[in-house]
Amino acid sequence: MIDFEFTEEQNEIRESVRAFSKKEISPLIQEIERNERIPEKIIRGLSELGLLGMTVSTEYGGLEADPVTVGLVAEELASADITCATPTFFLVQCAWGYIFDKYGRKNAKEKFLPYVTKGEAFIGIAATEPDAGSDLANIKTYAEKRDGKFIVNGEKMFISGINEITNLLSMGGGYVTVVKTERSSGVKGISLLFIPVKNTKGITPTFLKDWGRKGISTGGFAMENVEIPEEYLIGEEGRGFYIAMEGFDFARGIISIVCSSVAMSSLRYAMDYLKMRKAFGNPIGKYEGIQFKLAEHWAKLQAVRLSGYKALWMLKREKEGKGSRLETTKACAEAKMLAPVFAFEAINDAIQWFGAFGYTEECPLHLALKGVRSYFWAEGTIEIMKIIVGRELLGKEFIAYR
Fold first, then answer.
1. Are the CB atoms for 118 and 57 separated by under 8 Å?
2. Please, which residues have CB within 8 angstroms of residue 105's CB and are 6 or more apart in sequence?
3. Fewest CB within a 10 Å sphere: which of 253, 254, 265, 335?
4. What is the pLDDT averaged over residues 342-346?
């Protein structure tokens, strides 16, 4: 039997996050975008609520939160911060903190995860390179094992949190990093290493300026003969691709919730205007040209929201030893394939309803439009989501690039 209710504990968490977000985050979204950083008091507050890295083990300060609970927290953060900066800061660390906690070595986890949950360090994913994004089999970053260490050379680009790690957070942090440990074996030659960035010899960071979602930084880092202890290997050598896919699935499920929440928050903001603004003697919300669009967008966003929660529920079942890995991957891809597109279309129409005011920076919806646009790429492009769904529907023999 399908159950659409959250547990009492989840509802309590939702209410506490909603209250915090309304008081501490919503009034600061323009400041977050303008100053290009999430204020320290917000990060501290998220930590005090136990939300940062909430998926990791309690011994490191986490809550061992299940994916559905993570989704409802992301939903509240996204409703408040329509720039998508705060929910991105949250979701990246939940997804990849979970992977590091699940597959990492104890000594490595002890050195970093307690600082992640305290809001003093950031953990993210470093997969994309200047010349390789979706095609992970062709990454160039190479890690050679030598004398109990990995010697890493290569470059990662278009990753979140680089300025937070290198300049803003006291303990820095690092990335679950996709590397080749065997050049000639395709995805079977891929491994994962946790690579600390701040003050690590041989690492040179790069900072990029995005045109949206400015509260969390984007950039990359080059590695020249960087020495990484063998204990920083995540999982087994040669299994990195498959472990990384588990993390991407988790992040995609959360992103679908974030997109729907940002767009629904934008529609609520627009609805107040539709009731107030008059044209030809009537509130413009009375006109079917607007009202029908609103109804369509709301229904689409509700559908994709439920699709996101279904994906997170399937991840939860998989974590409990139930369900199918491939079916879960398909569900996460389906949700992520639709969510940013539906969200962008809804926000774009909401801006249109404001008329010329919608094109000014006084109307905050441009922050939402630019924020959700980033999710057309993040954690896997829309096109890759379609390939995943098509592959699972037709079979692997129908993958065009093989």
1. no
2. 231, 232, 233
3. 265
4. 98
SS3 state at 8 = helix
> Which residues neighbour 301 within 8 Å (Cβ) at sequence distance 6 or greater?
260, 263, 264, 267, 342, 343, 346
The alpha-helical segments, DSSP class H, found in 24-134 are 29-35, 40-48, 67-80, 85-103, 106-117
Tell me if residue 300 falls in helix, strand or coil. helix
pLDDT digits (tens, 9 = 90+) for 193-204: 999 999 999 999
Angstrom distance (rounded) from CA 360 to CA 82: 16
pLDDT tens string 83-141: 999 999 999 999 999 999 999 999 999 999 999 999 999 999 999 999 987 888 889 99
Q: How far apart are CA 87 and CA 228, in angstroms?
A: 30
Task: Calculate Rg over the CA atoms of the chain.
Answer: 21
Q: Which domains does the chain have, with CATH numbers?
A: 8-117 (1.10.540.10), 123-234 (2.40.110.10), 240-398 (1.20.140.10)
Strand (E) or helix (H) holding 158: strand 149-160
What H or E segment, with its residue span, contains residue 180?
strand 173-180
- 213-248 tens-digit pLDDT: 999 999 999 999 999 999 999 999 999 999 999 999
Q: What's 400's DSSP letter? A: T
- Which tokens is 274 given? 């539709």
Give the separation between CA 358 and CA 353, rounded to whole angstroms.
7
